[in-house]
Amino acid sequence: MPEMTRPADAAPGALESGAPLLSVVVPVRNEAPNIGPLVEEISTALAAIRHEIVYVNDGSADNSAAVLADLAARVPTLRVLTHAVSCGQSAAIVSGVRAARGAWIATLDGDGQNDPADIPALWDFAQNEARPEAPALMVAGWRTTRRDTQVKRLSSRLANRIRARLLGDATPDTGCGLKLFPRALFLELPPFDHMHRFLPALVLRQGGRVVSRPVNHRPRLRGQSNYGTLDRLAVGITDILGVMWLQRRWKRPCLVAAPEPVSPPAP
Description:
Elements: E1 3-4, E2 22-28, H1 32-45, E3 51-58, H2 64-74, E4 78-83, H3 89-99, E5 104-107, H4 119-129, E6 137-143, H5 150-167, E7 179-182, H6 183-187, H7 199-205, E8 209-215, H8 229-248
Parallel strand pairs: 1-4, 2-3, 2-5, 3-4, 6-8
Antiparallel strand pairs: 5-7, 6-7
Helix pairs in contact: 1-2, 5-8
């Protein structure tokens, strides 16, 4: 049976022997034809990295639940969580990250347009760049060659320019579903609907770093998109105003080292 989502402050089982280093979180709604091929691709791409795959079924009305249940019985690394009703992509990502056991998270869209073969390179880059004394790092995928319709490409290009100008996130493609980040960093971010489109700005607000890396982008081969151009534009304006409010209403505290104790004078 699929697992039910539950809140978690610390990665469950994180201290267990053999716990995954990396959790791949995939939110899906009505993507049944894409689930099997994508799980196989993820497993192949990450064969050399101790990992788990966390699928979050966001209230699908197709046979996604049955497909996931069958795969979970056959793929040891696959875990399934199910929302009773659809709560949106951001809520699905939050559920997946909270339930994940890996210290690092990779997110992928469930439509198969993100290429799992890009994850190892992002993983290697993050491990080389991440240092205890440096700000936490998010690696954002950058779809330099989009495999979408012209309308979708033009609308995304306009939205990215407006968002970058207003939020100052310096990220050329914040809408790319392929991202890699520490689980602990994500859990510090304020959750809200559509937050997945603003993760770079939220990470910067939290004091982290964001680096964009080119990734492959593929055409959708199966199923239909759950998003339209006009509905994304309508909510996007409100969301940008909300993130601007969050940026202005938070001052990051900077801790200073405590002074060395003064030794009393010798008698």
